[in-house]
Amino acid sequence: MRKLAIALATLAVLAVVNVGIAHRESQVASGTPVVLELVPVDPRALLQGDYMRLSYRIVRDAFPDRVAIPAYGDGHVVVAPDGKGVAQFVRFDDGTALKPGELRLRYRVRDGDVRFATNAWFFEEGHGADFAGARFGEFRVAPDGEMLLVKLRDKDLGELAHAAR
């Protein structure tokens, strides 16, 4: 009986993990592309290996009063692409219909900071120079505003080496 319980628990865990993977693969394949401008921050973590901490210009545009950030709580912002295709803050989402070209992006407030999707891009040790020129992050956005980082791009929006992992 105990072996059966362990087997069923293992199958349940594998099912949940695989559903999550399938969901994210679907989002990468069919999500709406959006590009956000990055703000440079320290790229290393001694205990976690090489990575680039990510911060986004849109956070500064949407939340200019950094002290008031905890009062916002989780939510969505509405963005629209500029002439280069880089998303720019338009307004906080109030539930009104989106105009053509606009997207809702989900943000979370954690520890007094605003987070979009992820705040780090991990890479192989010794490949930091490949990402030193990162100025933009390309995401795939699901209909609910959830974002997945898929590529880092340079100042000309060109894909960086090793970025398509």
* Helix-strand category: alpha+beta
Shape: globular
Contiguous uncertain segments of 5+ residues: none
Query: How many structural domains can be distinguished in the coordinates?
Result: 2
**Main sheet characteristics:** 4 strands, antiparallel
Radius of gyration: 18 Å
By DSSP, the count of extended strands is 11
Helix and strand run: HEEEEHHEEEEEHEE
**Strand content bin:** 25-35%
As laid out across the biggest beta sheet, the strand order is 4-1-10-11
Question: Helix fraction?
Answer: 25-40%
Offer a quick outline of the entry.
By secondary structure, the chain is an alpha+beta fold. It is built from four helices and eleven strands; from the N terminus they run αββββααβββββαββ. It has helices at 2-30, 57-62, 69-72, 128-131, and strands at residues 32-39, 44-45, 49-53, 55-56, 75-81, 87-92, 103-110, 113-115, 120-122, 136-141, 147-153.
Please tell me about this protein's structure.
The protein has a four-stranded antiparallel sheet. A four-stranded antiparallel sheet has the order 6-5-7-8. It is built from four helices and eleven strands, in the order H-E-E-E-E-H-H-E-E-E-E-E-H-E-E. It is globular, with a radius of gyration of 18 Å. The protein has helices at 2-30, 57-62, 69-72, 128-131; strands spanning 32-39, 44-45, 49-53, 55-56, 75-81, 87-92, 103-110, 113-115, 120-122, 136-141, 147-153. Strand 10 (136-141) and strand 11 (147-153) form a beta hairpin. It starts with a helix and ends in a 12-residue tail after the last strand. It is 26% helix and 35% strand. With 165 residues, the chain is an alpha+beta fold.
